[in-house]
Specification:
It is a single chain. The chain folds into 3 domains: 7-63; 69-112; 118-165. The protein contains 9 helices and no strands. It has helices at 13-32, 37-46, 51-63, 69-83, 88-97, 102-112, 118-129, 138-150, 155-165. The protein is elongated, with a radius of gyration of 22 Å.
Length: 166
């Protein structure tokens, strides 16, 4: 099925059906999990929808708040930072890969960290992973360092946590 449509044919019944098909495709995909506008755009382009149809679908989804990068970034930052023990660098990396603008990512991280210290979040992640604190051997400290850096905590935060624990 050829789904490519030019902007000049938008009033055409087949173009309207194509638009409805794109909206249906996007809504079904969004029902499974929240997605960024960039992810939806990429998905629709991969499915063969024309640029005009993709743009109109994104407007449709944004107007109804089915796609909202600010909300997505804030919720994902909360989940990763507070529930999963990841650091700011990991959150920034994931959201950037998902196509969320840097300014939106920065604001989301700042909002989640507003009343919290990154050192406290890293300490909590470390306590969940390493039940036997303090870390007494060099090998334990090296494992803890790799764990926290691997979770996306900045080096200065990791070093501060390990100094407190040692």
């Amino acid at each position: 099925m050829n789904r490519r449509v030019s902007r000049s044919r938008v009033s055409d019944p087949s173009a309207e059906a194509l638009q409805a098909s794109a909206q249906d495709e996007a809504c079904r995909w969004l029902a499974r999990a929240p997605r960024s506008a960039s992810e939806v755009e990429s998905r629709l382009r991969t499915r063969g929808f024309a640029d005009a149809v993709v743009a109109d679908t994104l407007v449709f989804l944004t107007e109804r708040r089915y796609v909202d990068d600010t909300v997505l970034a804030h919720r994902r930052a909360e989940e990763l930072l507070l529930e999963r023990g990841h650091g700011e660098l990991r959150v920034r990396h994931e959201l950037t890969l998902r196509g969320v603008a840097d300014t939106v990512v920065t604001r989301a991280i700042a909002a989640v960290l507003e009343d919290r210290r990154p050192v406290d979040l890293a300490r909590r992640a470390l306590a969940r992973r390493f039940r036997a604190l303090p870390l007494t051997t060099a090998a334990d400290r090296a494992r803890a360092y790799r764990f926290l850096v691997g979770r996306g905590h900045p080096e200065d935060v990791v070093n501060a946590v390990l100094e407190e624990e040692g």
